[in-house]
Amino acid sequence: MHNMEVLIPIAFFVMIYLIVKSITENRTRQKLIDKGIVDDKARQLLEATRESPQRNALKWGMVLIAIGISLALANVFPYLFDGPAGVGLMFLFAGAAFIVYHFVAKGQEKE
Fold first, then answer.
1. What gap in Å lies between CA 18 and CA 24, rounded to an integer?
2. Cα–Cα distance between 49 and 1 in angstroms, integer?
3. How much is the pTM?
4. 104 closest CA partner among 55, 47, 50
5. What is the pLDDT of residue 83?
6. CB-based contact 29:46 (threshold 8 Å)
7. How far is CA 99 from CA 14, 18, 55, 73, 102, in A?
8. pLDDT the model gives residue 31
9. 60-97 tens-digit pLDDT
């Protein structure tokens, strides 16, 4: 249970940070485009950095499933993944999910 006491506040603050970052970036991009400050090449670059909602859902779904699997493994094998090892396992699985997502998204771009 010690892992959850640490992970819940961290996850909460990370979610708040990502939400605020996303909102401010989108507002800044839209203001630049609306005022015509950027040229066509920069507009295409700014619009190309937006990720589709489906890909975003896929990415975070993969990460959350990986974290869930790591927490399940930590509960099934509490002596192997107690303390920092459980947190390390969670980060390992989340990182692996991001890497797998990278290759999935790259494959979708080629299509």
1. 10
2. 39
3. 0.57
4. 55
5. 77
6. yes
7. 20, 19, 14, 20, 5
8. 79
9. 899 989 988 988 888 888 888 777 888 888 889 999 99
Query: In angstroms, rounded to a whole number, what is the distance separating the alpha carbons of residues 3 and 11?
Result: 12
- State the Cα–Cα distance between residues 68 and 66, nearest whole angstrom: 5
The tokens for 34 are: 């609306």
Per-residue pLDDT tens digits for 34-48: 777 666 666 666 665
Cα–Cα distance, 75 to 4 (Å, whole number): 11
The Cα angle at residue 87 between residues 73 and 89, in degrees rounded to 5: 50
**Cα distance between residue 74 and residue 85, in whole Å:** 9
Query: What pLDDT is attached to residue 14?
Result: 83
